[in-house]
Amino acid sequence: MDEKKEIFQKLEEMKKVIRGYERAAIAFSSGVDSTFLLKVAHDVLGDQVIAVTASSHFFPGRELEEAKSFCEKEGIKQIICEIDELEIKGFCQNPANRCYLCKRELFQQFRAVAQEHHMAVLAEGSNVDDEGDYRPGLQAIAELGIKSPLREAGLTKQEIRELSRIFGLPTWEKPSFACLASRFVYGEKITREKLSMVEQAEQLLADLGFSQARVRIHGTMARIEVLPEEIQGLTEKETRLKITKRFKQYGFSYVTVDLQGYRTGSMNETLSVGLH
């Protein structure tokens, strides 16, 4: 089957699924997947759709502002939920099921908002590629009965990017982003101070032109991940000195580069096989 034809068949399947919701709240973070989901849901259901967005220490302020701007531009009603993940029991200790604890609390709050606004369904933007890594958050989503229309339609990340490009969405080539807690090695306590260190460090790398970057934190050591083809850029004298100086101002003692380069879920590489 022609690839483009297959993508559009999946899009039609997704629309059919959403049409069956009648009224829906969409968990919206301004990322590639949730932006595409919200756009399609709004196209299908119109004013019977609302966006629910978290204001959190775990997502940079720029992400929230982008979410607000998109909803204003598209004329979509948006509800902002103030979330403090550090208050979730057990979360700060950063156990291997951290994502489960967070997602369960977050989506319980989102579900309450959906019910308050008489929405029949709460939907979120995970895609079929999310099923390949260790994702305890998906367990919480399943337990709470949250719908995942992108996964239900069989859409991959790349297909979502391609459809987003066709739709003219600004997020079609937006770098992937994950909660800042994913920068911490499991078992290391998560604090507001260290979250701020990571956020500032990643913003610096973005400002320096690195297209996809993570700053993993190990104690007070920073482990930088950028795309393999951009690693050499980190070693240029002026850039290297600026990064080192600024990272130390943020609170890091040591600054290192991961020679494997950027990859999703690199902190999961240390988990035992039994967790999968």
What are its keywords?
single chain, 276 residues, alpha/beta, Rossmann fold, Alpha-Beta Plaits, 2 domains, four-stranded parallel sheet, three-stranded mixed sheet
Task: Give the secondary structure arrangement, pairings included.
Elements: H1 3-19, E1 24-27, H2 32-45, E2 49-55, H3 61-74, E3 77-82, H4 98-116, E4 121-123, H5 136-143, H6 149-152, H7 157-167, H8 192-207, E5 213-218, E6 221-226, H9 231-234, H10 237-250, E7 254-257
Parallel strand pairs: 1-2, 1-4, 2-3, 6-7
Antiparallel strand pairs: 5-6
Protein described:
The protein has helices at 3-19, 32-45, 61-74, 98-116, 136-143, 149-152, 157-167, 192-207, 231-234, 237-250, and strands at 24-27, 49-55, 77-82, 121-123, 213-218, 221-226, 254-257. With 276 residues, the chain is α/β, with parallel strands linked by helices. It folds into two domains: 3-167, Rossmann fold (3-Layer(aba) Sandwich), CATH 3.40.50.620; 180-270, Alpha-Beta Plaits, CATH 3.30.70. Strands 3-2-1-4 form a four-stranded parallel beta sheet, with helices on both faces. Helix 4 packs parallel to helix 5 and helix 8 (192-207) packs antiparallel against helix 10 (237-250). The longest helix has 19 residues, at 98-116. The radius of gyration is 19 Å and the shape is globular. The model has no long low-confidence stretch (mean pLDDT 92).
Shape: globular
β-strand amount: 5-15%
Helix content, binned percent: 40-55%
Average per-residue pLDDT, rounded, comes to 92
Largest sheet: 4 strands, parallel
Question: Rg, please?
Answer: 19 Å
Please name the CATH architecture of the largest domain: 3-Layer(aba) Sandwich
What string, H for helix and E for strand, traces the elements in order? Answer: HEHEHEHEHHHHEEHHE
Q: Which regions are unreliable across 5 or more consecutive residues at pLDDT < 50? A: none
Number of domains: 2
